[in-house]
Design goal:
By secondary structure, the chain is mainly β. It has one helix and 14 strands; from the N terminus they run αββββββββββββββ.
């Protein structure tokens, strides 16, 4: 049985209604994912400005301010593979980014640290690190045909689907989008050991069906 194809068809059918459901969720609160935590980039931001809840299969996210979301028990160390499947609803003219982070530590404290891997409308990807309030670019915004933008999605699709994968093997990292490697580099100097989770910038409407770790190699 082709379970992958069956799941994709089921997700597609559900996402036809998910946009309307997300709007309704602003009035009827979705169940917050059990055990997950959120940190906004901007101090003083309110959870009232965020829709983040369980909507099988996966979770729905509609951001106000930019944020990270994670489960403290979601930890990746050594050799690992992180995969996230995300469906982007119409962003309008916004080119805000989304993806995931790895190597998270002190995520609710003043010395938060992580490395993040993002895509954005326009078909571009980015690799960056955060240490406290400072960020540093590892790979600046780069256009790549592997990134599916909402503007270039298939005509019969309601959302732009992107599958992001990070593989850590030995001292190297490989970042792939929709099955195509778009960046590789050394782990040296990057935060890779620690919590992993989602990163979503402001004003986006997403459905995340998976964010999971498996053994590398």
């Amino acid at each position: 049985m082709h379970t992958g194809k069956i799941l994709s068809a089921a997700v597609a059918a559900i996402l036809v209604l998910a946009g309307a459901a997300a709007l309704q969720a602003q009035e009827e609160e979705l169940a917050f994912p059990e055990g997950w935590e959120v940190r906004f980039d901007r101090e003083g931001s309110s959870m009232d400005d965020l829709v983040f809840g369980v909507m099988p299969p996966g979770m729905h996210v509609t951001t106000g301010p930019a944020m990270i979301a994670y489960h403290p028990d979601s930890v990746a160390t050594g050799e690992f593979r992180i995969e996230s499947e995300t469906f982007l609803f119409d962003p309008g003219r916004r080119r805000e980014a989304f993806g995931f982070f790895v190597g998270g530590s002190d995520l609710q404290g003043p010395n938060q640290r992580y490395t993040y891997f993002l895509v954005r409308e326009g078909g571009e990807f980015l690799v960056k690190t955060r240490s406290g309030t400072e960020t540093a670019v590892v790979q600046d915004w780069t256009a790549h045909p592997a990134v599916v933008a909402f503007a270039s999605k298939p005509a019969d699709a309601n959302t732009a689907k992107n599958v992001l994968v990070l593989e850590a093997e030995g001292g190297r990292l490989r970042f792939s989008i929709n099955g195509q490697e778009v960046w590789s580099g050394s782990r040296d100097g990057l935060e890779t050991e620690g919590v992993f989770g989602l990163r979503v910038n402001h004003g986006l409407n997403l459905h995340v069906t998976t964010i999971m770790r498996s053994a590398g190699g």
